[in-house]
Amino acid sequence: MFSGWEWIVILIIVVLVFGVGRLGKLGGDLGEGIRAFRKGLAGEDEPKDEEDKKA
């Protein structure tokens, strides 16, 4: 497994390659995707039909 210093070096290389702005946007997009996935699992994404409730 990696030690603390190795993780720091990997993090620095990733930031240099992708840049801070792009990593922030990627993190936001990843969070949005996870939230949408959880909503889909919970069934909150299904449209509620008004006509079915009246019948």
Provide a descriptive summary of the structure in words.
This protein is mainly alpha-helical and 55 residues long. It contains 3 helices and no strands. The termini are far apart.
Number of strands: 0
Coarse structural class: mainly alpha
How much of the residues is beta strand, in percent? under 5%
Describe the main β-sheet briefly. Answer: none
Topology (elements, then pairings):
Elements: H1 4-18, H2 20-42, H3 50-54
Features:
mainly alpha; elongated; single chain; 55 residues; 3 helices
In brief:
The relative contact order is 0.07. With 55 residues, the protein is an all-alpha fold. The chain has helices spanning 4-18, 20-42, 50-54.
